[in-house]
Structures are given as C-alpha cells and as structure tokens.
C-alpha cells in the first residue's frame, strides 16, 4: 500500500496469519484499537504468539474463546495480562528489561508483525513512538511488518523513538485519549512515611531512577528542597513535573545526557503527555541504553528506587511473583540496582511497606516456596520501610537479619526474632 493511505483496523488485522509472532506496544502506548481488531479475528487464527511488556487498557486475552487463537508470552506481566500469563494460554519469560531488545535483534524471538501506536507524521515524514520507546525500538527495527496506529493524542517525543513512514507498512488513523494513571491522591500515611525515609537518603546532585506508583510519587514530593537533581530512569510519571518546573531537577550534574531527563517510557495523566510533547529536554530512549549498567554508573550518586513483594532475613528480594504465581516481572530492577551500586556515591534502594494491604508481612524468615529472586543478597544495599532505613552492604547474615527485623512491622518482630534464633541459635 502507499504510505499516504490509511486503512481500517479490521483491514490491518488481516495481515496477521496463524502462527505469527506479534509484538504489542506497551504501557500508555498500548494500541488497544488494533488489539481489539485482532481479537475480532480469533475464529480465523491459530497459534498466534503475542509478546509485550506492561500493557494498559482493555486488552483481556483471558477468555476461553481465545485459547486456540492466541498465546500470550509476556516479557513483563501487568494487571490486564496477569490472568492469561498464569494460565495454559500464556507464560512469562524471565529476563532483564535491558536485554529484551536482544531477543528481537538476535532472532531469538523474531517478530513477524509489530503493532505500535505513534504520533502523526511530521513535515519530514517522521512519526514518534511517543510515550514508550523502551523495547519498541528494537521491535519496529526488526519486525517483518509494522502496523502503526496513528493517534494525534500521542505526544511527539525526542530521543530514539522516531519512525519514518517508509518504515511502516500499514497505517490506521484513530484518535483516542491515552490511558491515564494518577497516584498523587492514593497515598496513605504509611506510603507518605516511606517517601520521607527514602528522600532523606537522597543527596543534592543525585541522579534518580524512580518509577511510577505511590512510593515514587511520595519520594518526589519530598525532594522540593533538594538541588541539582538529575533523572535517568526506565519509566517516569507526573511527579517529576513540579521538580523540573522549579529547577530542582535540572540534570546539571550528570556526566552523560547533561541537561536532559532520560527515560525509556512513561505513564501518567494528560498533563504529563502534554509536558513531554516536543520537549527537547526529555529524551525517550531504547531500553538497552537506558538500563545498561555501564551507562547508569557514569552518572553521579545514582539513587535507584525500586520495590519488592517480600524480602527474607538474608536480603533476598522477591519482586516478581507471589510464590509460583507470576505477578509482574524482573523488569529493570537489577539493571538499576547494579548500575547504582557501581555509580560514584550511588545508593541502590528497595522501598516497601512492612505489610501488604491484606495484612501479610513483607519481611519474612523465608521467601514463599516457588518465589523468584530478582535482586540477590549479593546485590542488596538499602532497604526502606515506614519504620526506617538500613544498609545491608557489607553486613554478614546475622547482622542483616537484625537490621531487617529493626524495620519490620512491630507486630511481627517477635516471630522474626524466633526465626532468627532457630536459624543461628542466637538472640537478636
């Protein structure tokens, strides 16, 4: 077809054949309109493998009628793909986020069709991958066929996300609002205290890796008195905007990409999408670059702030599963934990509430059977809860146990102390 022509989503979906491997653009860029058109063809298809990281929007594949048609091979499980990833119609690939592009570039998971959502072509014919360059850059570079949803609501971002119309085989015009997430009003007193505890560890001139969620949002809200902060992060949300506008984040101390905020993808409100639109101070980059520990370490005082599902008394961090149930993925946690630890003055931080909303304790004697270790006890440094912050780096197993018990929930400390005694025959 001519690149000047647009076709319908239903027509574009006809390109996908049985047994194809189909990439779905992730996060706020999830092309739900194209996905639904593909789902409408489920009776005509068999064995289509879908690969993606975090998705947003209504793209539920956990339906009996889809079992023979689609297999969801998730590279990072999200809320709307969790059920199918844990079923016979899906699975999860354990992999560092930084290395996912290698699956495409090395033909380990060659892509037949890439479904992406992009900004309209500019005067020179370039669209932008917008809110999510991350692994999408490698997918569109290597896919046999690229189908692009052209959405004028998608911001045109600077960095490595530009895609010329000549690289797109089929284009579908569809205007719709991007998915939004807003954590600013969801914080409770526990999350607010964790935010304060983490912010107290961050020095002036630090480079931040900070994601989206209640804890990152609270950390950012407690940094307004800081100076000369930088951002080099795999993902970001609205919380950075006030600090950028006030000059608290100015990226002036960074050794690479000085003066510019670097991210791999973003999700937030319309305010964020408008803020990054055609903003040359925001660079949205290939995740193999953003999450490369050798790149991360070059910036000063990297504070990498990540979370966890549970931590055992030796410092092993489970961040991707609840026992054998795949909840999320390895993602970029280890990329940044390692990068921060190698950065001059860096602080790798795991921040988490001491208990879940259901009253389950997160600092435990042993991880649940089948739990995945994302950050090993050899990589762990700072652990922060609402009860304080401890640095496990250089501490032996007994010292770690005592330190972690000191920031656990008070109602569970006696149980942890008993487990400590049973293991070491010593009192805390």
Main features:
428 residues, alpha/beta, Glutaconate Coenzyme A-transferase, 7-stranded parallel sheet, 14 helices, globular
Low-confidence runs? none
CATH topology of the largest domain: Glutaconate Coenzyme A-transferase
Which CATH-level-2 architecture of the largest domain? 3-Layer(aba) Sandwich
Instruction: Give the % helix.
Output: 10-25%
Please give the order of strands in the largest beta sheet: 8-14-13-12-11-15-20-22-23
Major sheet summary line: 9 strands, mixed
- The total domain count is 2
**What is the C-alpha radius of gyration, as a whole number of Å?**
22 Å
Shape: globular
Class from helix and strand fractions: alpha/beta
Mean pLDDT: 96
Q: How far is it from the N-terminal to the C-terminal residue, by CA? A: 72 Å
Strand content: 15-25%
Any idea of the CATH class of the largest domain? Alpha Beta
Question: What do we call the CATH homologous superfamily of the largest domain?
Answer: Acetyl-CoA hydrolase/transferase C-terminal domain
Overall number of strands: 23
The tally of helices reads: 14
SSE blueprint:
Elements: H1 9-13, E1 21-24, H2 32-39, E2 48-52, E3 70-74, H3 82-85, E4 90-92, H4 100-105, E5 113-118, E6 126-128, H5 136-142, E7 145-150, E8 158-159, E9 162-164, E10 170-173, H6 189-199, E11 207-210, H7 214-221, E12 230-236, H8 240-246, E13 261-266, H9 270-276, E14 282-284, H10 287-290, H11 293-296, E15 302-306, E16 310-312, E17 317-318, E18 321-322, E19 325-326, H12 333-342, E20 347-351, E21 363-364, E22 382-385, E23 388-391, H13 397-406, H14 410-424
Parallel strand pairs: 1-2, 1-5, 2-3, 3-4, 5-7, 7-10, 8-14, 11-12, 11-15, 12-13, 13-14, 15-20, 16-21, 20-22
Antiparallel strand pairs: 6-9, 16-17, 18-19, 22-23
């Amino acid at each position: 077809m001519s690149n000047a022509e647009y076709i319908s989503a239903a027509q574009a979906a006809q390109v996908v054949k049985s047994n194809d491997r189909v990439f779905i653009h992730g996060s706020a860029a999830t092309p739900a309109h194209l996905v639904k058109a593909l789902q409408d063809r489920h009776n005509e298809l068999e064995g289509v493998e879908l690969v993606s990281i975090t998705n947003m929007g209504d793209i539920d594949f956990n339906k009996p009628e889809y079992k023979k048609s689609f297999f969801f091979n998730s590279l990072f499980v999200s809320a709307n793909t969790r059920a199918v990833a844990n079923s016979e119609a899906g699975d999860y690939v354990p992999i560092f986020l930084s290395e996912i592009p290698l699956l495409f570039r090395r033909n380990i998971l060659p892509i037949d069709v890439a479904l992406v959502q992009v900004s309209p072509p500019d005067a020179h014919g370039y669209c932008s991958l917008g809110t999510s360059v991350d692994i999408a850059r490698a997918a569109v570079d290597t896919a046999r066929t690229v189908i692009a949803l052209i959405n004028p609501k998608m911001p045109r971002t600077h960095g490595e996300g530009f895609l010329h119309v000549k690289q797109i085989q089929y284009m579908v015009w569809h205007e719709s609002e991007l998915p939004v997430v807003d954590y600013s009003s969801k914080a409770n007193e526990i999350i607010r205290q964790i935010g304060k505890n983490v912010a107290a560890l961050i020095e002036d001139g630090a480079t931040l890796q900070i994601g989206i969620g209640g804890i990152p949002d609270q950390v950012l809200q407690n940094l307004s008195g800081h100076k000369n902060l930088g951002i080099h992060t795999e993902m970001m949300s609205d919380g950075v905007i006030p600090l950028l506008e006030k000059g608290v984040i100015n990226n002036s101390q960074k050794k690479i990409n000085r003066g510019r905020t670097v991210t791999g993808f973003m999700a937030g409100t319309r305010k964020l999408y408008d803020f990054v639109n055609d903003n040359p101070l925001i660079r949205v980059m290939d995740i193999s670059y953003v999450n490369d520990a050798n790149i991360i370490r070059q910036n000063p005082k990297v504070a990498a702030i990540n979370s966890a599902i549970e931590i055992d008394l030796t410092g092993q961090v489970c961040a991707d599963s609840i026992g054998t149930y795949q909840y999320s993925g390895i993602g970029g946690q280890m990329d940044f934990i390692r990068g921060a630890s190698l950065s001059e003055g860096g602080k790798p931080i795991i921040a988490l509430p001491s208990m879940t909303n259901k009253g389950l304790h997160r600092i435990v004697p042993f991880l649940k059977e089948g739990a995945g270790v994302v950050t090993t006890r050899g990589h762990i440094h700072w652990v922060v809860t609402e009860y304080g912050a401890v640095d496990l780096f250089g501490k032996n197993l007994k010292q770690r146990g005592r330190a972690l018990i000191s920031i656990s929930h008070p109602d569970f400390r006696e149980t942890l102390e008993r487990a400590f005694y049973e293991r070491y025959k010593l009192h805390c």
